[in-house]
UniProtKB/TrEMBL annotation:
The chain crosses the membrane at residues 6-27, 39-59, 65-85, 105-125, 145-172, 199-220, 232-250. It holds the Pfam family HTH_18. Residues 295-400 form the HTH araC/xylS-type domain. This is HTH araC/xylS-type domain-containing protein.
Length: 404
């Protein structure tokens, strides 16, 4: 075995090792949570493509051809599986693959069909197309075989270029899903720092930049001439992205996992508390909550905050509050939105900020100590909430009071 570029080969092997280890860990966890299934599929799909330069060194030509052929459906599977993983992370119920999700696998099925047909071609033609790039041999093939081979080449070309559009579409869908998810979090949790999935946003931004370059290079490679790119740089970027996706994927839990077994609805046909509605009226149109009930719940909410000081719990959530005041969480959500005209996140943090204002004036505790004392999980979250509700920073508020 002769390796012409040892450093590049080492980077490719490292990427493949990270994928194999991470996919194995995810598969072990799939029996308890299906959320890890699409991530494992995504990593394995990337692994099949990352295997291409390694197979040229380690595998015989027949296996190289098989690896090359299966890389097409693997390429078309990366974006849908990443989308399904994002959907699973942001779902307000335990995620499972549904019939509605099957449509995302249609391009993959097309790629698999192309692969199966190509595998059935006689070996000389496989070598001519995939190894030697010898189209002259195809001209000597029987007419029907010529039509079949050229048809496969055209469909493959369209599929590869279609991957560019497919990736752009799923990139948009994931960004939109994350935006809606961030809004849903504030209807259920008072502290969202650990659930924001900022790592996924960063990863998507990085992947978006790399994807844009690869897509542009792919178009130029097929239509004009390829853009020069250092293979070492490309391999390093892929390794870093795979490592980040694997590391955070293994650590990340679904955002609403605490609510999966809570808040069982006593009312039939009630809407999920975390679904993003098209409008407020549409969200609560089936609710049986009347104005008198809403007012009683509003009174209980104020008592829970001002008397019981429930806002001091850093992990306070809508189901926890519902259990405390013995009211359905969807009624609480409706009361907050319609009667008190405030979201759960802002309702709790308003009380935290009010308590912090008093502590800032009456004590010499540090800003961080005050933030933790009133229920915030971090100094940054405290600053953001304080600035939103008072128009100034905690330090400025303390200085202003001392000068008055």
């Amino acid at each position: 075995m002769i390796v012409e570029q040892p450093a590049l080969f080492a980077l490719n092997v490292a990427t493949l090792c990270v994928i194999i280890f991470s996919a194995h860990q995810l598969i072990l966890r799939m029996h308890s949570q299906h959320v890890y299934r699409p991530l494992a599929v995504c990593l394995l799909s990337i692994g099949l493509i990352a295997m291409l330069p390694i197979s040229k060194v380690l595998l015989p030509i027949e296996w190289q051809i098989i690896n090359l052929l299966v890389s097409l459906p693997a390429l078309l599977l990366i974006a849908p599986s990443l989308w399904l993983y994002t959907k699973a992370l942001t779902s307000n119920t335990p995620w499972q693959l549904s019939r509605h999700d099957i449509k995302h696998l249609i391009p993959v099925c097309i790629g698999c069909t192309i692969t199966l047909i190509a595998l059935c071609l006689p070996a000389p033609y496989q070598h001519a197309i995939l190894v030697n790039d010898n189209l002259a041999l195809i001209e000597q093939a029987p007419s029907l075989l010529q039509i079949l081979i050229y048809g496969l080449l055209i469909i493959t070309f369209i599929s590869v270029l279609g991957w560019v559009l497919q990736s752009a579409w799923y990139f948009y869908k994931i960004i939109k899903q994350l935006r809606d998810y961030h809004a849903k979090l504030k209807d259920v949790f008072a502290s969202t720092e650990q659930k924001e999935l900022h790592w996924l946003v960063w990863l998507l931004s990085s992947v978006g930049g790399v994807w844009l370059f690869i897509a542009t290079n792919l178009v130029f490679d097929n239509l004009l001439s390829p853009i020069p790119l250092s293979p070492h740089l490309h391999a390093t970027l892929v390794l870093l992205l795979v490592y980040s996706l694997s590391l955070w994927g293994l650590r990340q839990k679904p955002g609403f996992v605490e609510c999966y077994d809570l808040d069982k609805a006593p009312e039939p046909n009630k809407p999920p508390i975390t679904d993003p509605p098209a409008s407020r009226d549409e969200k609560y149109q089936r609710s049986a909550l009347d104005a008198q009930q809403a007012q009683r719940i509003a009174t209980k909410l104020q008592r829970a905050m001002q008397g019981d000081k429930l806002y001091l719990d850093p992990a306070l959530s809508l189901p926890k509050l519902a259990a405390h005041i013995c009211a359905p969480s969807h009624y609480i959500s409706q009361t907050l939105n319609e009667t008190l005209d405030i979201r759960f996140f802002d309702f709790v943090n308003q009380h935290r900020v009010d308590a912090a204002k008093h502590t800032l004036v009456q004590s010499d505790k540090t800003i961080l100590d005050v933030a933790m004392l009133v229920g915030f999980n971090s100094k940054s979250a405290f600053y953001a909430a304080f600035k939103k509700h008072t128009g100034m920073t905690p330090s400025a508020y303390r200085q202003q009071d001392s000068t008055d």
